[in-house]
Request: fold
Amino acid sequence: MKEIVVISGKGGTGKTSVTAALAYLAQDDVIVADCDVDAADMHLLLKPENSIRADFFSGVLAQIASDKCIGCGKCAEICRWEAIAKTNEKYQVQALDCEGCGYCARICPTSAIEMEEQNVGQWMISEIKSKSKMVHARLGIGAENSGKLVAKVKNEAKKIAAQEQKPFVLVDGSPGVGCPVVSSLSGADLVILVTEPSVAGIHDLKRVYQLVEKFGIPAVCIINKYDINRQKTEELYAFLQQKELALLAEIPYDENFTQAMTLGKTILEHDPDGIGAIIRASWEKIINKEI
Reply:
């Protein structure tokens, strides 16, 4: 079983559209993991159904029992996050400000504060229109610990792939270089970097590739909209050559890409002989180990 992770240095490069197209093309040879849990949108293209859902608990939040609180104010005094405020003569925790450090509970003279584990979202296993399965998640509004939720999604996808003897796990990672991306990369066999020929695209590709290098994972690159700025595309070529980073595909600017998203379809369904053919050739290179 091989784990392929698709990431980008920035949002808007077409990363999720490319991943969904690869998933649709591979059919039941892959288990899909949508690890962009902060802004999940793979479901818009792969149409998950018959989902099995489970709550995801992570992190703790201070809770003050009003019947035990004597109003001494020590908790509010020591909270460096200013998460405890006095309202109507009672001290209350402002949930969005609490970092869950637990110091207030330790110094409370009447043990009126407890640290409660938080339900920060849900993770799901669903059937998708490519005749396979997708593990995905929804992080709660303002919730943290997205890196842990990414790890949960990935581990469940790998578990299903092992049970069903699937050759690939295909992961749609988050943009950027933060905690969710680090979690997405852990254990990967191949990274596909999706970029675009723009100032931000080049800058963020270099940044995310530094992270991939530290993990020592083989990587290839897809340049989307390669023909919108030839000067910047040449800069991308130079960077790829410098890093000995293989160019997997060049995708031209094409309104079919946007139209497919609007229709809730992958580009393979909407434009099989145009951009779809480029994606198909890319997947064949991957499975035939030509990169």
Summary: The mean pLDDT is 93. The chain has two domains: 2-47+128-287, 59-119. The chain is about 35% helix and 30% strand. Residues 146-163 form the longest helix (18 residues).
